[in-house]
Each structure stands twice: as C-alpha cells, then as structure tokens.
Specification:
The complex is a heterodimer. Chain A has one domain. In chain A, helix 2 runs antiparallel to helix 3. Chain A is mainly α. Helix content of chain A is 74%, strand content 3%. Chain A has 20 helices and 2 strands. In chain A, strand 1 and strand 2 form a beta hairpin. In chain B, strands 1-2 form a two-stranded antiparallel ribbon. The radius of gyration of chain B is 22 Å and the shape is globular. Classes of the chains: A mainly alpha, B mainly alpha. At the A-B interface, strand 1, helix 5 and helix 6 of A face helix 17 and helix 18 of B.
Chain lengths: 518, 498
C-alpha cells in the first residue's frame, strides 16, 4: 500500500485528488460547511502532492507513469517534468487561495447553485493537472476538453441571458479550437507515428516525408487549438467571460484556463516542433509577430474600458501574449522568462481579480468611474491592487519585473530589437490604464451624492469592525481579504526570492532540457 | 451442448415470443419476466459464443445438419460475435427499463409488446448470425414487420409514421430480395461462403452487377442512408419510448453490419473497391449524410426527432468509414457501429426517462433536469459527450480511427464533414444542457425545480434508471478500455483484403 503513495505515483494522484474532491462535493451538497471543507482539504493535499515532486524532478529528472494503452502507440501516460511542474505549482497553490476566497465571495453574495460551482471548479483543476502532467498530446487533449467543458457552467453561472451568451461564446471559441487541436494531433500522429513530448521535438523526421507547408499548416492548427491562450483574433471569449463570479474569473485568468493555453503553446513549440524545426520553418517570427500585435492592440482595448473586470481581461490578453512572445523569440533567456511569467502573472493577476471581486462584493461598485473613494473604505484591498498593478507594468520590486527582464534579455539575445521596443511600449501602456484606477480610488474627491449611505455605510462599518453585522458577515469579508493580501505579498516575495516553490530552478531545468545543455 | 448455442440464441427468443403471445390471453403479467429471462439467456449465450470465437476462431453451424450450400449455415466470426453481444446486451437492458414505461404508455398492450419485442430481437440476432442470403431476407422481414407494429403502437401520429415506414421499408426489402434473386440465377447458390467462391469468376456479368446494386440500395433504405432516410425521423419520434430505445440504436446498425457482410464477404474486397469503385460513392453519400443529418438535427425542437437526425448523421460516419476502405477506417466504422448503438441507446433511454416524468420529449421538457433528475442528467451528459466525441467516452475513439483513416486515404471532404459535425453536435447538445442546467434564468414564472410547483419532479423508478446508468458506464468503460476491444475483437473483424 505504501507503494501507492510513493513518488512514482504522484503524477497520477494529482488527477485523482481533484476527481475525488469533485465526487465528495457532489454528495455533500446539502451541507455547505462539509462541502467547502472537502474543497479546502483537497486543495491543500493537492498542493502538497505537487510541491513534493519538485525536489525529486530537479534532482533525478522527470517522473514518468504509464497508466494504460489508449490508442495504438499512444498511452494514457503522465510525465511530471520541470515545465509541467511550473504550471501545476501555480494552479495548485492558487486553488487553495481561490477556495478560501470563494467561501467569502459566494456566501456574501448568496449565490445560487454553489454545489455546481465547487464541483465544476474541482473538475477544472482536474483538467489543469492533467494538462500539466500529460506526457503526450492525446492525454493532454483528454484533459484539455475536460477543462473546457467543466468551465462552461462556471462562466454561465449567473444564468442571466448575458452570462449564458458569454458561456456560448466561450464554448464556441474553445471547442472549435478543440477540433483544430484534434486535427493537428491526428496529423502529427499520421506524420511521425507518435505524440509523445520530447525535449528536442518529434516532428523533425517528418520533414523528409512532407513539405514545410504542411508542417506550417499543422502549427497553425495547434495555435487555433490553443484558443485558450487568447491571442488575437481568437481572444473575444475572454472579455465576455468576465460576467462570471470573480472566483471564476480568477480560475480563467490565473489558475487554470488561459495558463493551460500558453502552457500548451510552450509544449508545442518546444516539445513537439523543437527549437531547430521552429527556426527551419520560420515559425518563431510569425508567432512573435502575432504576439506583438496582440500586446499592443489588447493594451489599447484595455485603456478604453470602464468596467474594471473587463479592463483586467484585456490586461490578461496582453500578458499572455507576452508569454507567447517569450517563447516565440526561441532564445534560452526569453523562454525562461516566458515560463516564469506563468506563475508570476498568475499570482499578480489573481490579486487584481480578487480585489475587483472584493470591491464589487462589499461596495457593489464594478466600474472604474465609480471607484472614487474606495481606497479609503478598503485600504488593504486597494493596496493589494496597487501591488498587482505595479507588477503588471514590470516595476522592480515585483515578480513581473523578473520575467519581463528575462524576455527582454532574450529579445536582445535573439537580435530582434524590434520586440524589445514592443516589450517596453507594452509595459508603458500598462501604466496608462492602471494608474487612473488607483488615482481615482485613493485621491479623487467623493461626489456629494455618492457618499456612504444606507446599506453601503452599514456594510463598511461591519467591515471595519465598528458594528456587529448579520451573523458572520465580517468573517466572510475576511475570507475575501486574507487571500488577496497573501497573493499580493507573494507577488513581492517572488521577485525578491524567485526560487520560492523552486520555480526558478524548475524554469532553468526546463530550458536546459530543451536546449540540451547549450 | 455449447455447439448448439448459435441455434439456441435465435430459437429461444422466437419460442418465448410466441409463448408470451398466447399466454397473454390469460396472464398479462407473464410477459416481462419471460422476456427478460429469455434475453438474459441470450446475453449469456452471446458472450459464450464470443469467447469461443476469440479462442477457437469462427464457428460453423449447419441447421438441421444439412450441409451448405444446400442447407442453411450459421457462421460466426469476430464481426458477428460482437454484434450478437451488442444486440442481446442492449436489448436486455432496454427490456428491464421498459417495464414501467410500457405500463404507463401502453397499458392495454403489454403482452403484445413483449411478444413483438422478442420477435424483433430474434430477427436482429438472426440477421447477424446467418450465412445465407435468403435466410437473411426472411429474418430482415421478421425484424421489420415486428418493428412496424411496435412503432405503430405509439402516439397518435405513430400509425401514419409506421405506415410510411412499411411502404418504404418494404421497397427496401424488395430491392434486397431482387438482388439476391439475380445472384441466385447467376450462381445457383445462396450461401455466402459459396457465393464468394463463385462470384469472382462472374465479375463481368451484368446480372451480378445489377444484383449488387439492388442489394446495396435495399440495405441503404433499411439503414436510412441519406437520401433514403425519409421514413426514419417520424418513425423514431412517435414510437413508444421503450420501442425507440431498442429500434433506433439497433436496426440501422444491424443493417450497416449487413452491408459490410455483403460487400466484403459475399463479394470479396476486390469487386466493390477495385472493380466497381463504389466506395468513393459511399464516402460522398456518407459525407452528405453527416452534413444533412447534422443541419436537420439543429432545427428540431423535439429531442427524439433531433436524435433521429443524429442517427442519420451517424450512419454517414459508418458508411463513409466503410467507403474510405482502408484498415484504420474500417476499424473505425465497425467500432462506431458498436459505439453508436450504445450511445443512441443511452440517449433514447434518457428520452424515455424524461418522458416518464414530464410526459413529453421536447427539448423544453428537459428544463431543470440537472436539479430534479440528477442521475438522468448524468446519463444524458455521458451520452451527449460521447456523441460529440469528447474523450474518454467511446465516441471519441471510433472517431479517431475514422479520422485517421480519412487522413491516410486523403479523403479531406469526409474528414472535414466529421469535424464540422462534431461542432454541430456541440451546438445540439449544449442547447439541451442549457435547458437542463440553467433554471434560474431571470425570467418570471414558478420555479419548476421546487417540488411544490412540479408534481413530476424526481427521478424515474430505479428499474428504469438503472439500465440507463449501466449503459452510461459502459460508454465510459468502453472508451477507457477501447484498446482491449479493438485489439482483441475489432482488429479481427475487419474484412480480409483491406
């Protein structure tokens, strides 16, 4: 029995734990406290399982586990390598915090269908873990689809016509993407007879039997398949999906969904095509051009938004393309930066979303124009927002600086100085849309007719502890505030000590694997 | 004893069917236990036949000891064996399910129902076991006639739908019979193995060509291949729930089996593919069927009618896969026959469960099922995801083989149609999901998920629900362990020469 818990089985446990949690949630739906305990305990156990693998992987190399044969020459197999661990660490750590936050948020707003919400959330984590540790494309596809479908009820959670429309948009983009992903997998299998990820890529032998053009087409099928990465023009689902409750936005933007997209692109570029083949086919530059276009355009979209969450959504699109750009530059430095940006952006963006959610849940304000004076009501929340915003811009004492620095170095390294310019301009544009929010929240004059009155005033006093609210109201507020404070602190710590959770070592190992010790 | 199994598996349901019919005059309740008992025996028999085929290779059985080509021969290889298991297994589950549903929908005709039900299964089992073309016709008529009567028992419009089915179906049977007649005139034989020896010398004969064409058209009508599908949607929509749950998944699939048998066993592989090149035509018909079925399904408001058009599309998958005519695609087609039967049984069972509670099978009747009927909703989710082709359900894996076969043969039209249909299926089933999931929509009106507002809320009885859950689990298990089935059975079921 003790064998089952040994390190060799850990990659499988990462998918079993969320499935068990999902089932338990389903059967404890009538008792909310038991249900939330399942989520919390499950997330902690999952996080421990994932973190326990890093030292082993760093020391001895990937942990491979073949479960059973799925199709001829394709196993249902897991491989925990350095790259996968970066993504899995991000998702599993953030799941704990989002779970705590969800309790506060969902109960404050008295949301309906909470069992469905927690159930789908656990399934989405199952998808994310599977994507992180899949050792071949088909296994990855299985979990990719699980992630897409389990997130649909979350996006449409509000069940208003607008939310359902957003859900449909989400499905239309991502499942159409799924079909392209499938055809790309089939072509890969048809061309080289395998779909296993390998450090140097697997498609190179195909050059002898097929034209460059076919491989380029297949690459675009893969890209369309990873519509989750929200590169332009397949990004439209992401801003629409912000109608969902905030914990869902956190899941989409930080924990799992979009990260699965960029993670997939890194896998394809590095482990299916390989750096050499990308150079041969000239795809790096094309990908970088797409990313650069998205960075600039998404920033301009963001400037024009008044809804806070919608603005953050465009900011995510911009940051994701930043990761894609890092990969597309194909230099060791920039790929390190791209990999680091997955967890770093995750921590910073989740801070911002949790802040937006807390503001909306406590004060009911959702647009930037209403933000005046919020900083004085919710100082901790807006302080965390400030940290997150600085991080997005890549300001030094924050995690974003490290990853942006690496990508910028990579841009210099690869000789495309144009992309360095894009990085700089992109970061400056970040400032343009984040700072009005902060300025308004802290320094703007509160209009006369919008002074704290009625229900809001009471809420604020309860929040500040001056007044006893409805039973447990203040505790619920704290459930929201504490996680976002933690993520904000981590956004700083990750800059000062980038090796928390061995993330930096993992990224370096992953890059070393790809470049074979170059 | 065990060498008599091939005969018993057909004779047993036949005898029990007559017994139920006559005993029905005195004991109305005897039908259900007798039918289920007989079908459980069939499941046992079919599994033991399958195991024997897997172990010792094809079984030959001469009815009455008459040697072929004079006597009727039953011949069972991997392809028939898996079909037998499929038919007996699914029909047994549907029979268990059907009790309550029949008592509700056809209170006065229970004995008749069970008698016809077994007769229908007899015919299907017979079609899959026989190695004689004329015997196949006889059993085809047994199946069809009992099928017509079963369907006619349904709602008001079922009689009309069934009559239409009778007219078109009889034409199909006549075409088939004509074709067999031509072959008999040219060769003097009806035994499949014997014919396959004789036919290669006669490939120039116009009579053989005509016979082949007639048989193909006849079976095409019976399997509802676009554009010969006209009878199907009405018949399956208005039939009683229990009937559509058994007829819809099995009838068309068994016909698909018959087409594979005739094309590749009777005529050998060279004739249809190298000489006539009819397979390209089949790919095109398959492609059109997929697109037509998908688009028509999109415009339906009735769940069963939508499923009927999905069947038309799925038949396109299978026919297209046969037409692609390489090993991979044929594996996919055969695997898809199995999978599609199970998927459709699953979804028609869901329709029956919902019908039992809400007295309707429109998509609107699915409102709130995720709240009121969570287990039914689970079954529906699995079935729907399988039709869409989401891994790890079985639907994904047959689609994988079909797509890969299509790519290998450079049949890009077929591949594209398959992928487009996947997306259409997404739209189809997520429409139902929306109904089932989102009941809080901010419109006014009573909340039907509140038990006080909806007397029907709640799951159907366990005897109805359990078979559906078993079918849903089968979809998942077949998907996960598909390699076991593919390498042990389907690999050997692919016709020689591909």
């Amino acid at each position: 029995m003790s064998d089952l818990f040994s390190i060799a089985y850990r990659p499988v446990w990462t998918v079993i734990i969320p499935s068990v949690v999902a089932l338990l949630i389903l059967f404890s739906g009538k008792r909310p406290n038991a249900r939330e305990s399942c989520t919390l305990i499950g997330s902690v156990v999952l996080c421990y399982t994932v973190l326990s693998m890093s030292p082993v992987v760093l020391k001895y190399g990937p942990i491979q586990f073949i479960w059973f044969n799925l199709l001829p020459g394709i196993d249902f197999a897991f491989k925990a390598d350095a790259l996968g661990l970066i993504f899995a660490t991000t998702s599993s750590c953030l799941w704990i915090l989002v779970s705590i936050y969800s309790i506060g948020y969902m109960r404050t707003l008295k949301e309906h269908a909470q069992t469905r919400f927690y159930f789908s959330f656990a399934l989405a984590l199952l998808g994310a873990m599977g994507i992180a540790f899949a050792s071949n494309l088909v296994t990855m596809f299985v979990f990719y689809e699980i992630l897409t479908i389990s997130t649909y009820p979350l996006v449409a959670h509000e069940e208003s016509p607008e939310a359902i429309a957003a859900g449909h948009k989400y499905l239309a983009y991502l499942l159409t993407g799924g079909v392209f992903f499938l055809i790309a997998i089939l072509m890969t299998y048809f061309l080289v007879g395998t779909t296993d990820f390998s450090y140097q890529g697997i498609l190179k032998p195909a050059l002898s039997s097929t034209s460059k053009f076919t491989l380029q087409i297949v690459f675009f099928c893969f890209l369309l398949g990873f519509a989750k990465a929200a590169w332009m023009p397949v990004h439209a689902w992401l801003p629409s999906a912000m109608v969902a409750p905030t914990p869902v936005s956190a899941l989409l933007h930080a924990v799992a969904v979009v990260k699965a997209g960029v993670f997939g692109i890194i896998r394809i570029v590095c482990h299916i095509y390989g750096i050499d083949l990308m150079h041969t086919l000239g795809l790096g530059l094309v990908l970088a051009a797409i990313a650069a276009f998205t960075i600039i355009v998404a920033n301009f979209y963001a400037i024009g938004q008044n809804n806070l969450k919608r603005m953050l959504a465009y900011s995510t699109i911009n940051q994701l393309s930043f990761i894609i750009l890092g990969v597309a530059l194909l230099s060791p430095m920039s790929i390190t930066g791209a990999m680091l940006h997955i967890p770093f952006h995750g921590f910073m963006k989740i801070t911002l979303f949790l802040c937006a959610g807390a503001i909306a849940a406590i004060t009911g304000k959702k647009t930037i124009s209403e933000m005046a004076g919020v900083g004085r009501i919710l100082p901790v929340t807006l302080g965390a927002f400030l940290i997150g915003a600085f991080g997005m811009c890549g300001a030094p004492p924050l995690a974003g600086f490290i990853s942006k620095w690496h990508v910028a170095l990579g841009a210099v390294d690869s000789g495309y100085l144009f992309f360095l310019l894009i990085i700089v301009v992109g970061s400056l544009l970040d400032v343009v849309y984040f700072f009005p929010v902060i300025r308004r929240a802290f320094f703007a004059k509160v209009p006369e007719d919008e002074t704290l009155k009625g229900d809001l005033e009471e809420k604020v006093e309860v929040y500040a502890g001056k007044k006893r609210g409805i039973e447990g109201r203040r505790a619920l507020y704290l459930f929201m505030i504490v996680p976002l404070a933690i993520t904000a602190i981590f956004s700083i710590l990750l800059c000062l000590f980038p090796n928390i959770f061995s993330i930096y070592d993992l990224a370096q190992t992953a890059v070393k694997n790809i470049f074979g010790g170059v | 004893m065990s060498h008599q199994f091939p005969a018993i598996i057909v004779v047993l349901p036949l005898v029990v069917s007559f017994f139920i019919f006559f005993s029905g005059w005195w004991v109305k309740r005897a039908g259900y236990p007798l039918a289920v008992g007989a079908l459980i025996c069939c499941v046992f028999l079919s599994f033991s036949i399958l195991i024997s085929v897997l172990g010792k290779g094809p079984i030959h059985y001469w009815l009455g000891g008459w040697e072929p080509p004079w006597g009727i021969e039953y011949r069972i290889d991997h392809l028939n064996a898996i079909m037998l298991v499929l038919i007996s297994g699914l029909s047994m589950l549907v029979a268990v399910h059907a009790k309550k549903s029949v008592e509700r929908e056809l209170p006065a005709k229970t004995a008749l129902f069970w008698s016809l039900f077994l007769l229908f299964i007899t015919g299907l089992l017979g079609i899959c076991i026989t190695a004689d073309l004329f015997n196949l016709f006889v059993l085809l008529e047994v199946t069809s006639l009992s099928g017509y009567s079963l369907i006619a028992m349904g709602e008001k419009r079922a009689v009309y739908a069934s009559f239409r089915y009778v007219v078109i179906g009889t034409m199909g049977a006549s075409f088939y019979l004509l074709g067999v007649g031509y072959l008999y005139i040219a060769t003097g034989s009806l035994n499949m193995a014997d014919l396959s020896q004789l036919l290669p010398d006669l490939t120039e004969s116009k009579a053989i060509l005509a016979g082949f064409a007639f048989i193909l058209i006849g079976l095409g009508i019976k399997m509802a291949l676009f554009p010969l599908h006209g009878w199907l949607p009405d018949a399956y929509t208005y039939a009683p729930s229990a009937v559509s749950a058994v007829v819809a998944p099995l009838m068309t699939k068994v016909m698909a089996y018959a087409i594979i048998r005739v094309m590749f066993t009777v005529f050998r592989t060279e004739f249809p593919i190298s000489i006539l090149q009819v397979n390209d035509l089949m790919v095109w018909f398959g492609t059109l069927a997929i697109l037509f079925g998908g688009v028509m399904a999109l415009s339906q408001r009735d769940f069963k009618r939508m499923l009927s058009y999905v069947i038309v599309a799925e038949i396109g998958y299978i026919v297209g896969g046969i037409g692609v005519a390489n090993f991979t695609a044929m594996q996919g087609a055969i695997f898809h026959i199995v999978n599609d039967a199970i998927m459709m049984a699953c979804l028609f069972l869901v329709a029956s469960l919902v019908m039992y509670r809400t007295d309707g099978h429109r998509i609107a009747d699915f409102k709130g099922i995720f709240r009121t009927m969570p287990f039914t909703a689970f079954v529906f989710t699995v079935g729907a995801l399988a039709v869409i082709g989401v891994p790890p359900t079985c639907g994904f894996f047959s689609k994988w083989y079909l797509l890969l076969g299509g790519i290998e043969a450079h049949q890009w039209g077929f591949v594209t149609a398959l992928l487009v249909c996947t997306l259409i299926n997404v739209a189809l089933f997520f429409r139902v999901f929306d109904r089932g999931l989102y009941v809080h929509s901010h419109k006014k009106g009573p909340d039907i998920t509140e038990p006080s507002n909806n007397p029907h809320a709640g799951e159907a009885p366990l005897s109805m629900l359990l078979p559906a859950i078993i079918v849903a689990l089968a979809i998942l298990l077949i998907g996960i362990f598909n390699q076991f089935i593919v390498t042990n059975v389907i690999h050997f079921a692919v016709p020689v020469g591909l």
